[in-house]
Structure formats: structure tokens, C-alpha cells
Write a structure and sequence with these properties.
The protein is built from 4 helices and 12 strands. The chain is α/β, with parallel strands linked by helices. Helix 1 runs antiparallel to helix 2. It is rod-shaped.
Length: 215
Amino acid sequence: MARHYLALNGALIFWLLALLCWSYSATLPAQIFGGLALLNFILHALSHQVKSMFKKKQIEEISPLTLSQPVPVAVKEPSAPEKHATTIIASEVYLEGNIQARGHVYIHGTLKGNIDAQDNLIKVMRGGEVEGNIVCRELIIDGKVNGECRCDVVDICENGQVTGTLVYRTLAVKKGGLFAGQAEVIKPQPEATNIVGFLTETADEQAKKSQHAAG
């Protein structure tokens, strides 16, 4: 039997005893049991009221501790590569216009226009199409490109198709990749030298000097 309902159950028991005594005409015992039943009812009501007040006070004491002020969180400053967001043209998207990107560019859909991502990567994914000129550091083609591509590194994958002009330093065409058009290799820049007016002797000049020394 739970202690919470002890007084209530005692009141019911005393009330039943009072009724039983009253039915047998025992007036005095009936009054005693009736008084005890009333007393237990009063005790039950008081205990319930005290517990309610105690719980309310407990909540008021705990709530200021639990509902504390939010602690400010320091936001990490994005690094330089993160600031240059990647440009993505999703599949089934048709875009007409030029793109000048400061980050990498991924083409899943169709673009009709030029792309300028001077120092970054451009990747034409499988199913992607570009009709226009491309300028970038590295170009990976697994879709279709029609135009002039000027890049340091060009990689034509198995499903890549390029029609137009390629201007590159390094070119790789995997099995299955197609290229139709003109290709031009970017010549390496001559190394600078601090020697001014340095002339190499030709073979004829060296031969003349040898004959003059012999004579």
C-alpha cells in the first residue's frame, strides 16, 4: 500500500466500521469510527496540499539554475580556400551566360557561355555540356565541350568529347575520350639569365681560330 494513500484508505476503513456499528445500533463505536474516518480525510487533504506547495517551491528554486543565459559561441573565421565558394551547375539545369569564378567549377548540367576560373579547377561531369570558351588552371572533361579551352592541364576522360581548340601545357586523353579540332602547346617561358652580351662561338669560328693558331 502506497504511503500517499494511507490516510485515505484508513478513512475508508473507519467509515465502513462506523456504518457497520451503526447498523447494529452500537452508537458510541459508530461515532468513534466516524470521527476517525473524518480525521483521516482531513489528514489526507492536508498532506496533499503540503506536497503540492513543496513541489511548487522546489520548481521555483531549481528553475533559475536550469534556465541559465546562453553561452556565446565563437564563430570560426573561414580560411582563404573556404571563402572562395565552389560553383556547381546541377544536372537538368540550363544556364546561358558567362561565369567568372574565384573557386572551382563543376558542370553537371548545360552551360552556354564562357567560364573564367583562372587559377582553379573546372570539371565537366558526365552528362554535362559546355558551349563556350574555358580558361582555367586544370580542366577535367567527362562530358561535352565545344569551344576554345586554354588551360595548363587538360584531362579528357573516358566519356569526354571536345570539339574546338585546345591550348595547353599538359594533355591526357584516356581510352574512349574524343578530341576533334586544333591543339596548341603553350611554350615554356625562357629562363632568365643575369649574363649580358654572352655569345657562343659557332663551329666555323672555332675552326678558323684553330687554323690561325696552326699557321
